[in-house]
Design brief:
four-stranded parallel sheet, alpha/beta
């Protein structure tokens, strides 16, 4: 970004930047450092010097307007390139690897950490199992917290929760292929509110 700003000064061309996500951290100490960088370094040295700030959704637009006091912004949603058709054999291999069987699957794609711990999704699982007893929830992504598995154990639904860890990008279409639903939970009141855009980013 700093290099781009230098080029903008030399060539006298407009500077357009994109803000994709809010700078937050679940660790209180790290969050204080990031907030300082956000409000006093990025704000004055980069964002406020832009001729236009692109935001992917209204939440980031609100964040940009309030945090950086930037009025020159616009929303351009994420684009999606359709995934290729999933490979049937690879889909079957994934079901076999995680002992999913032939039942329905809810996929939640993206890192698992305290900001996106899928707590609400796991909390509703006992009620879902009353209607769909063979249902499995598959969370595919880096595992950065054990609170999700601990909650599943507390609710007695551990056998219906599968944490895959990081999966190859080349297999993403097969994970989508085995699922009936791809789900994230969005709570606008959460202090680290964030949209579930991992599914879009995977495309």
């Amino acid at each position: 970004v700093f290099h781009t700003e230098k080029i903008e000064k030399k060539t006298n061309t407009p500077l357009v930047i994109t803000v994709h996500t809010m700078i937050k951290h679940t660790n209180f100490f790290f969050d204080l450092i990031l907030r300082f960088i956000d409000k006093f370094i990025l704000k004055f040295l980069i964002v406020q010097k832009a001729d236009m700030v692109i935001c992917p959704d209204h939440i980031i637009q609100k964040y940009v307007t309030q945090n950086f006091v930037v009025e020159k912004n616009t929303i351009i949603p994420y684009g999606i390139t359709p995934l290729p058709e999933p490979n049937l054999q690879k889909m079957q291999a994934i079901r076999k690897k995680y002992n999913i069987g032939d039942g329905p699957v809810i996929l939640s794609l993206g890192h698992l950490h305290e900001t996106r711990n899928r707590k609400e999704l796991i909390s509703i699982l006992p009620a879902l199992l009353e209607q769909f007893p063979t249902l499995k929830v598959v969370i595919a992504g880096y595992i950065g917290t054990d609170s999700t598995s601990r909650l599943a154990a507390k609710l007695g639904v551990s056998d219906h929760l599968i944490l895959t860890g990081v999966v190859p990008y080349s297999d993403i279409q097969e994970y989508f292929g085995i699922a009936q639903i791809e789900a994230h939970w969005f709570d606008e009141q959460h202090p680290h509110k964030t949209l579930g855009i991992a599914a879009q980013e995977a495309m």
